[in-house]
Amino acid sequence: MRIRKADAADLVEIQTLLRANGLPVDDVTGLLIEGFLVAEDTDGSIVGSAGLEPLGSSVLLRSLAVASEIRGTGVARELVARLEENARSLGRLEVWLLTSTAERFFEVVGYERISRGEAPGNVRLCRQFAVLCPSTAACMRKRLLPNSFPYVNERPQSR
Ligand SMILES: CC(C)(COP(=O)(O)OP(=O)(O)OC[C@H]1O[C@@H](n2cnc3c(N)ncnc32)[C@H](O)[C@@H]1OP(=O)(O)O)[C@@H](O)C(=O)NCCC(=O)NCCS
User: Fold this and answer.
1) Domain contains 8
2) What stretches in the chain show pLDDT beneath 50?
3) From ligand 1's centre to the CA of 108, what distance in Å?
4) Ligand 1 pocket member 108 (CB < 6 A)
5) Residue of 49, 100, 105, 128 to test ligand 1 pocket, by largest number of atoms within 8 Å of CB
6) CB 52 within 8 A of CB 63
7) Which range marks the domain in which residue 131 is found?
8) What are the protein's UniProt keywords (predicted)?
9) For a designed S-S bond to 53, which of 21, 60, 125, 137 qualifies (C-beta 3.0 to 4.6 A apart)?
10) Burial class, 43, CB count within 10 angstroms (exposed 0-12 / middle 13-18 / buried 19+)
């Protein structure tokens, strides 16, 4: 199993995985999946997906699904960690998401529940929030630390 960036040829397989897991596919296009990662099995089939959708200075984490046969093996944790790295390298340090089914998983990987009203406007207005996810879905956020803290290990010089 390896995790790699999605490409246009993966679109149908990603949509099939999302549908099988009850996740929205209406807006999952070739353009959107440029921000996706996939987990690929040794036979080349796609067994996991997750993506970032840029929303102004924030980012939406979405379309996280792992095939039932390989759940519990850390694939989702790895996909989320890799996407967070990507968000960091884009300089976006707030990751938002909506979930009806995986709130506990996201808590385990460091997300906290926030009321929808507290999400920034560009997040509230995105299609997932406005149209695709039920209003009962939990809204969650993680604040990422920047890539480097140049001074974090430095003590003030004593004179
Ligand atoms: C949620 C989902 C992606 C988790 O995938 P996974 O690969 O099994 O998760 P991992 O193996 O990486 O789990 C990482 C950690 O979260 C925990 N975890 C995973 N799923 C969990 C759940 N449903 N409830 C509570 N904890 C969970 C694991 O125990 C593990 O903890 P540990 O490392 O301390 O042992 C998978 O169950 C799934 O595809 N569900 C259907 C689609 C879905 O609901 N997607 C979310 C849409 S927003």
Assistant:
1) yes
2) 151-159
3) 9
4) yes
5) 105
6) no
7) 2-143
8) Transferase
9) 60
10) exposed
